[in-house]
Specification:
The protein has 147 residues and is mainly beta. It is 0% helix and 67% strand. The protein has a single domain, classed as Porin. The strands form two sheets. Strands 3-4-5-6-7 form a five-stranded antiparallel β-sheet, with no helix packed on it.
């Protein structure tokens, strides 16, 4: 990543020179799937929607671990797509696994220290996320209307 300091001085960060830390990542998505099996206990699905990430940026200078360089935290929005499956193994419990790709586009970030020495970065952020989990559904069997 490249950044500039003032009009004439350019700083190029090394492989560990610039990093981000995300403390929150999430999505607001719709899921479309197909259930199959003897009682419809297997679901495969695709999903898509909005994604958000709350992160902070840091600069590392010549072995001085994040020495007084950091920016304010930033909430960024983007989009996400994903796919997965869910398998019920009784009336209340299921296992799921899914993969999500979130893209947050480009963002211009200014990272400064206490002496107001600043570096500008063009951050291109995307996240690959694999989720696995066990779900418990409260309430037992679904209610079925009979006419």
């Amino acid at each position: 990543m490249d950044g500039s300091v003032g009009p004439d001085l350019t700083f190029t960060a090394g492989p560990n020179g610039f990093r981000t830390e995300a403390d929150i990542i999430g999505s607001i998505a719709a899921r479309l799937g197909y259930a199959f099996g003897a009682t419809g206990q297997t679901l495969v699905f695709v999903k898509g929607g909005a994604a958000f990430i709350h992160e902070q940026y840091f600069v590392n200078f010549g072995g001085l671990n994040d020495f007084a360089f950091s920016s304010s935290k930033d909430l960024r929005w983007g989009w996400m797509v994903g796919a997965g499956f869910e398998q019920a193994f009784n009336s209340n419990w299921s296992f799921k696994a899914e993969y999500n790709f979130s893209h947050f586009g480009n963002d211009d970030v200014r990272v400064c220290n206490v002496a107001q020495l600043c570096f500008d970065y063009d951050v291109k952020q995307h996240v690959h996320l694999v989720k696995v989990g066990i779900n418990y559904r409260f309430g037992g069997s679904p209610v079925v209307a009979r006419y």
